[in-house]
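Late entry, written up from scratch paper. The run itself happened at the end of the previous shift, but nothing got recorded in the book at the time, so transcribing now.
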Amino acid sequence: MNKLLLKDDDSNLFEDVYTHVKESAGKLGSSGTALFIIHHDKIVTESYFGKQSNAKHARDVKADTQFHIASVRKSYIGYAAAYAIHNGYFSIDDPIRRFVEDSNSPAYEGVTIRHLLTHTHGLLIADGKLVSEYKPGESWAYRGPSIELLTTIIKKTTGKSVADIVKEQVFDPVDFQSTEWLKMSQPHSKIANTIRDKDNIFWTETDVVDGSGMNMYVSAKDLALWGYLHLTEGKWGGKQIIPREIIQMATSIQTPDPSLPIHKNGFLWFVKDKNHTFNQIGDIVPKGSYQLLGYTNVALLIIPEENVVAVRMFNRYGSTEGYDYLKDIRSFGDTVYKCSIKEVERNNGR
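Output as recorded:
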């Protein structure tokens, strides 16, 4: 644990966030939940409630409970891509045809690394074939092919998998204890069971642990500390353990044409720019904040302007009928921001 991270005895200012997360857990039907907030180098909220599953004698959710983080894992892929670019393995605007085996496919025409990282590539699997949905850079769509391509290109150029890179560069130096790509055939007692509808078509199981699969499990504390490393731009315990340029690259807007009314992305991170009806980040959350949201409703939000990192964890894959996930996640961010402002006001009044 970073020596700069101290427990704040007066954490009730973030009570509204706790209430918000607990209410969301009820709406979702999550059996267990965790909330972890860091503000001005202090842990202001660390809460665990519920059970790791709906089983009769299920383990309580604890500090070491690991949740399926779904698409939030893309923050680690984005880091690996930034690491590769920073170290000269490829450039952000390199055409991906340089790195793929089926380079003659017309779908790859004009697609660059930047397009893959910002969901502006236009690639789509239709009837089992890779096709182009729109001209690269001219629109935005959240499609799967980009992640497989990115992880493959990273491994081909660096000789290391995404998992290898983050373990070597971050996990080992910081000593993360509860972060892993889990072999789904070998779960352990600290894993929260992922509650899901039996007919959910998005659920996959894999034993691949190279960082390319949707099988990453992380504790609330480890995920918050991962976010804190981004907030400090790579500093840990007063030392620059990650080059600042890597973090800045990954968390600043990299969308080819930022003037388009589409989601703005860094390296897979959603970055706040202007308010739109489709935004996942709250309306009052300041520009420059960034976030990732997973299909398990796990969220990692970083608000640099207020020096805050907020993590919420649920074990519900998908959502219940009538649950408005966009309204809920925006409200979560706005509540975190309002509470961080309250703490500033309290400190200024001392």
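The chain has one domain: 6-87+160-348.
(Scratch paper discarded after transcription.)
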